[in-house]
Amino acid sequence: MTNKEIARTFQFLGNIMELHGENPFKIRSYQNAYIQLRKLPQPLAELPEEELAAIKGVGKAISGKIRELVETGRMETLERYRAQTPEGVQEMLAIKGFGPKKVRVVWKDLGVETIGELLYAVNENRLLELKGFGPKTQEELKRQLEYYQRSKDKFHWAALEAEAVAVRDHLRERLPGVQVEWAGAWRRGCNVVERIEVLVGAEGPLPEIPEGLVNSPLTIHQCAPEAFGSRWFRHTGSAEFLEAFVRAFPGKDFRDLATEEAVFQRAGLPHIAPELREGEWALERAIGG
Asked: Which residues contact 23 (CB under 8 A, 6 or more apart)?
């Protein structure tokens, strides 16, 4: 378990306790722990409890919870609050700008228990009946809810960067001489991605990915080394870009090319950077010269 995961657990504990109107002093201590723990360079999972307790903003009680979390993957205190809270209400705590106090109001006063119910209440202007919710607050909440629903199960590129580098480097280290590269929306540098994608130019069993190295969705594609360029091209472009490419070169065989450059050479095109392979406009421009 990484430091950031441990820190986020304390952040969530503080939020869910605030949702239930618990002691502000305890809530603040967990929020402070979140701030301190996420910045630490040394892995918390490897530190003895005495050293954990000596960290600023931690102390004996929080160090015990860290040890419990590392050893069991759970925190009894957090599980107790989660059992008292509908899943949809817990999910509301992830909405930007919609803090625990406001979540509590819509939950307790309107009986809203899911994101869908909340958006429905917003569209009916029912939040305007509640204390602390004016037209501007409601409009901003609607915007954040719609964004949340669009981007659910997606990740900001920067949030996955460390894991993407780690998995690529792990495979390269254990597969000397084998080409291992990023692919998909990750390689295109999209701001928001659904997963990390990697292409490995080798067939057969791959080295195991160590537990905890990557916690985000990961897809590993494989191909024969002599077809790496063709497959890399295919696994990089968006569906729109690839469909336009097929239409532009009907019947042309782009299979089994060792380099991506060979794909562009066969098409008679200059190299198109991965980040430009999102739509078809860059392809049209390259074809038009």
From this structure: 17
